[in-house]
Design a protein that fits this description.
The protein is mainly alpha-helical. The protein folds into two domains: about 70 residues, no CATH class; about 35 residues. The chain has five helices and two strands; from the N terminus they run αβαβααα. The chain has a two-stranded antiparallel sheet with strand order 1-2. The longest helix is centred in the C-terminal third of the chain and has 23 residues. The relative contact order is 0.13.
Length: about 100
């Protein structure tokens, strides 16, 4: 991929990850929104490398998403993540508050 195309993809979301919304790290990658495997299996037609199908994403997210659709990725890997994070945060904050009370 040439530098100009990569820059266009980077700017699609203002230098932010298309999936997490976080500022892109230097090791960001271009992800195929519709996975290449769907083109290979003739589930969809067209060019998988068309710029409209390429998204700027954090490297770690692309690593775990692999050839999954964004729907599959959200359901299988992130399913319930926000609930787990809320639970973790609640537990973590409560422990911190208890520790601070014990210090005084």
């Amino acid at each position: 991929m040439n530098k100009e195309t990569r820059e266009i993809i980077y700017n699609k979301f203002g230098g932010r990850c298309a999936y997490s919304g976080t500022v892109l790290e230097p090791n960001w990658q271009c992800d195929h929104f519709i996975p290449k495997r769907q083109f290979t299996l003739n589930i969809v037609s067209g060019n998988p490398d068309d710029i409209s199908n390429l998204m700027p994403v954090q490297g770690i997210i692309n690593h775990y998403k692999r050839s999954l659709s964004i729907k599959e990725f959200k359901e299988w890997y992130l399913g319930g993540l926000h609930e787990r994070l809320k639970s973790y945060q609640k537990t973590h904050v409560l422990k911190k508050v208890k520790n601070e009370k014990n210090i005084c």
